[in-house]
Amino acid sequence: MLATKTINSLRWYKIIPVLFSLPLLVLLTGCPYESRNPLSLPAEAKIDNKLIGKWKLEDKEKGDAGLVTISRFNNTELLIILEEDGKKEQEMMRGFVTSIAGEKFLNLQDIKGGYEARRWTFARYTTGDCILTYRILNDSIAPSGADHDLSSGQLYELIKKNLGNTHIYDGETTLACVGK
Questions:
Q1: 42 is in which domain, residue-wise?
Q2: Which of 44, 74, 109, 133 has the fewest CB atoms lying closer than 10 Å?
Q3: DSSP character for 156?
Q4: pLDDT for res 60
Q5: Phi and psi (nearest 5°) for 96?
């Protein structure tokens, strides 16, 4: 599973179970959904300044800890750097925000590998009071469970139709801000 590779390589489920799993949380229903297409065009996105900064994950129960740094990549996209405690290698992703019926989703793509091989994963998130909370979209969203060829518009509408369905997301992860 490319999404699992992307998420595991980013350590979202261990660092932030992704953003983001990006990959490090207890999966309740399945693997992260991976798509060849983002939910919208990056060029049309707006930066959510509440995401910019450093975010700390500490899951004492699982023994996971790490730091996520989110900065501007350009005028519409973010650069997300994941550093898992005790590991030398950093993982990097690009991301941008898509709003669906007032809810915010991060479109996330690992920077490693050839462009055509990279897949998108998605995280529904909220911010407030120095807290970033997110849930990764899992593969139960797709009609066949493995249909990763949906267009951006089809996927957008499918998520919009299922916004209230908690089963399409993995467990919630909360990060605390540690600086800008």
A1: 2-179
A2: 44
A3: H
A4: 64
A5: -155, 160
**Total count of domains within the chain:** 1
Report the chain's C-alpha Rg in angstroms: 15
Q: Give tens-digit pLDDT for 70-102.
A: 999 999 999 999 998 888 888 999 999 999 999
Question: CA 88 to CA 4: how far, in whole Å?
Answer: 21
What confidence tens digit (pLDDT) does each residue in 10-30 have? 443 333 334 433 433 333 336
Measure CA of the first residue to CA of the last residue in the chain; give whole Å: 34
Place of tokens 């989110």: 70
CA distance 4 to 40: 22
The encoded tokens of residue 174 equal: 């909360």
- 3-class state of residue 49 by DSSP: helix
Taking the CA atoms of 134, 68, 44 and 145 in sequence, report the sign of the dihedral they define: negative
Can you tell me whether residue 10 is helix, strand or coil?
helix
User: What DSSP assignment string belongs to 12-52?
Assistant: HHHH-------S-S--SS-PBP-BSS-SS-GGG----GGG-
3-class SS at 9? helix
As a whole number of angstroms, the distance between CA 4 and CA 46 comes to 27
Q: How much is the pLDDT for 61?
A: 62
For tokens 């920077």, name the residue. Answer: 111
